[in-house]
Amino acid sequence: MTLLATAIPGSSNNGYVAAAYIVFFAIVLIYVAIMALRLSRVERGLRELNERAGTPAMRDEVRQDGSGRDETHSQARERETV
Amino acid sequence: MSSRTFHPMNGRGLRALSIATVAAIPIALALVFFYAPIEAEEGFLQKIFYLHVPLAIITLCGFVLGGLMAIMHLRTRDRSWDLRSYVAIHMSLIFGVGTLITGSIWARGSWGHWWVWSEPTLVSFLIIMLLYATYQPLRFAIEDPERQARYASVFAIVAGAFVPLNFLAVRLSTEYLHPRVLGSSSNLPAKMAFTFLVSLGAMSLLFATLCSYELTAKRTRMLLKARSRTLGFR
Question: ipTM beyond 0.85?
Answer without folding.
Answer: no
